[in-house]
Amino acid sequence: MPTYDSFDEFAIAVQAHSQAHPDWFRLDGRKKGGNQNAWAYFRHGGRKWKVDADTRFKPILMAHEYWSNTKIDPFRLGRTDKRDCLVVIDAVNAELVKSSASYRRYKYLYIFGDRNADAALSIPDVNHTR
Q: pLDDT tens digits for the chain (130 residues)?
């Protein structure tokens, strides 16, 4: 599973994948149904993030376009009942909703904190000696 050093590198790979599969609208090419398998990982904000395979191209590409034009982080930290996630900021979400009303109800962007990497970050160093 690839891990990209930045959101920029990840989004460029997604753009190439989208161009290679013009009839697809999701990373996994499926038309419906969940797919929580990892499609890729990327580093952002000092953390490693897992991108689920049922994520759609459009939110990633619009977030990248926003970042490219403004150099403002297109994400804010969100939280599910179990873990942290990345959510597009209101400016990007407004553009998504303009493009399709279905973005009002569903986010179609499934980026979650990598549980293994997050667990490693939260383990205190109890063996520290001088």
A: 899 999 999 999 999 999 999 999 999 999 999 999 999 999 999 999 999 999 999 999 999 999 999 999 999 999 998 899 999 998 898 888 887 776 666 678 889 998 766 554 443 333 333 3
Using alpha carbons, select from 65, 56, 69 the residue that is nearest to residue 111: 56
Residues 101/67, Cβ–Cβ less than 8 Å: no
Return the domain boundaries, the chain.
3-122
d(CA 98, CA 95): 5
Q: Return d(Cα 100, Cα 122) in angstroms, integer.
A: 39
Burial bucket for residue 78 (CB in 10 Å: 0-12, 13-18, 19+): middle
User: Which pTM was predicted?
Assistant: 0.83
- Token pair of 39 as six digits: 């499609």
